[in-house]
Amino acid sequence: NLTLDSGKIFLCFWWEGIRYRVFEEIKNQKNNPIKKDNKKKRSINSFFKKIHRNIKLILLIKEKFPFFSKRENIFIFSNNRRTRFQNYYVDIYTDPFIELLPKDIEYSFFEGTFNGYHGIPPRKYNIFYLDYFIFFSKIIGKIISPFIFLNKNKLISKLRTELIKAFGDDYSIYQKIKFHIINWHLLYLSYYLLLYFKKPLQIFVVDSQAFQPVISAAKKLKIPTLELQHGSPVRGKLNYDYSNGINHSSFPDWFLCFSKFWKKDLEKLLPINSEKILIFGFPYINSIYKKEVTNKSEFYELNNKKVILILSQPTIANELIDFTIKLRD
Fold it and tell me: What is the pTM of this model?
């Protein structure tokens, strides 16, 4: 057996960050590859789009650079996906959460891009872009990458051997781990400095897998971290399934889940104590299932409707579409 969760390079427990992606790649290894001509065309278009985005970032630096956020307030880190709703782009996990905050509590909201773009215009403000940190980590990462060698690491070498033995492919494991540890440390440095100087009171994240460097920096500085449930953390979903006792050094201190139904399973999965898994609800769902019926802003629950809520994930989108069509019929 390989004790991969103990693998650590400098400050980074690298298996925490890549195990979900490796598992998904193995599971989906039979996917059809992108045709070369399409890939070439996509790369040309992507090059010009990146230039355009970088110019915009330079112009917005005084408004969107994270170090211009306020001190000693609440930090909220989005999962970057926004939904168009009533001419605005809404983050369905954090926007309704922000509306529940007391009026005297200030917040700073941080987001990266989704497919290279920010949803504009947003409904909420105080938004700062993580693109600057990501761009920094990519540039510096490319400079130092040639000087990082992992082939002498015994644990990683054994992992590569086991992958080849079991699946006939090493899934570029050396490259994945190298990229992860470089990117992790550079982002950790950026986030540590941000948190050190801004001293947030609490940090809320939507996707702890995506913000492991943030959480690690917060733990180092003893800043409480909380995660808002955003999908379906279930048995076998490796970014949340720690039921076999695997350690996780960068999981949030608290987890706010949708309901008793989820808490019951999460108590068996998450690497935190049961009392730190709190039933918070899903404010977005609560809000869209109410409607204003009078000028006095009285709200009534929608009754007598049979509703099936489907939580989608990109990796199972095709199966869900077929399943949903069958339900309709």
Answer: 0.85
